[in-house]
Amino acid sequence: MVTTAQDVVELIDAHLGVPRRETTVDEFLAGDPEQEVHGVAFTMMATLEVLQRAVAQGLDLVVTHEPLFFNHREEWTAMLAAEADPVHAAKAAFIAEHRLVVRRLHDAVHDTRPDRIVAGAAHALGWHGFERADRPTTFDLPATTLGALADHASKALGAGALRYIGDPDLPVSVAGIQPGFWGFEKNRTVLADPDVDVLLIGESNEWETAAYAADAVSAGLAKGLIVIGHVPSEQQGMSDTADRLADLLPALPVAFIPTADPFRTA
After folding, report:
1. I want to staple 225 with a disulfide (CB 3.0 to 4.6 A). Which of 64, 94, 162, 213 is the partner?
2. CA separation, residue 141 to residues 10, 75, 98, 144, 197 (Å)
3. What one-character DSSP code corresponds to residue 4?
């Protein structure tokens, strides 16, 4: 029996069981949805390295949480192609040569309850069971310090270049987490909450959330900000999702291909 990329996506969407957003980024980004597929790779971000590893494993459908061509809504794709951008050209040529199909899985996993990406990060951090019922991204933790929590997050999430703002000796017992990029207003709301000691994020614009956290510290507020990095902050959530979805596809090879954290410290 032939299994197409569209068949696989329909199984995934049915399993997740959330209404499709009227405007969504969960679309096919490359390749023919009706193409027969021989294996499925799930990943956090479809970098060229991830695509190369998928091909080496014989996996021709790549389900990625983040964009293929560097923009949330892929709005740059046509522009980059028109300008013959060398990075876009190399990636697009590799996809075409190996007849890869790439499909995004972003909105649906965030729309599940609990949010599977947040739950994955909490799982990696050992925070399951500590969630605040009224705030699903906020956790009551065993007492620790900001510095110790930053070290733990770096190791637990595989963050090669984690940074933080605040006094390393600051006692913290309530933490918010917003993996990936949630934007300043959502970050600020959590940091301004008098009950929250520290916020862990994937990334932000530094003139917004980071500047706000730095000013909070200068104002004498007991606050901390931990910047994990986008990829390591969401990686576990996609890995856990892939593990669950693999059971839907017993006739196909299925693998989670981790995305390397691109940042290193000097």
Report:
1. 213
2. 39, 40, 47, 8, 11
3. B
Sign of torsion over alpha carbons 227, 172, 148, 215: positive
Return the CATH fold of 5-111: 3.40.1390
Q: Is 65 marked within a binding site?
A: yes
* pLDDT exceeds 70 at position 1: no
- 110 known ligand binder: no
User: String of b and e for 100-127 (b: at least 16 CB within 10 Å)?
Assistant: bbbbbbbbbbbbeeebbbbbbbbbbbeb
Q: 191-203 pLDDT, tens per residue? A: 999 999 999 999 9
Is 72 among the annotated ligand-binding positions?
no
Residue-wise pLDDT tens digits, 130-164:
999 878 799 999 999 999 999 999 999 999 999 99
Q: Domain spanning 119-231 has what CATH number? A: 3.40.1390.30
pLDDT of residue 80: 78
Cis peptide before 114 (omega within 30 of 0): yes
Element at 90 (helix H, strand E): helix 86-97
Report the alpha-carbon distance of residue 182 to residue 192 in Å, rounded.
Answer: 15
List Cα–Cα distances, 240 to 116, 118, 153, 185, 244, in angstroms. Answer: 8, 11, 18, 28, 7
230 among the known binding-site residues? Answer: yes
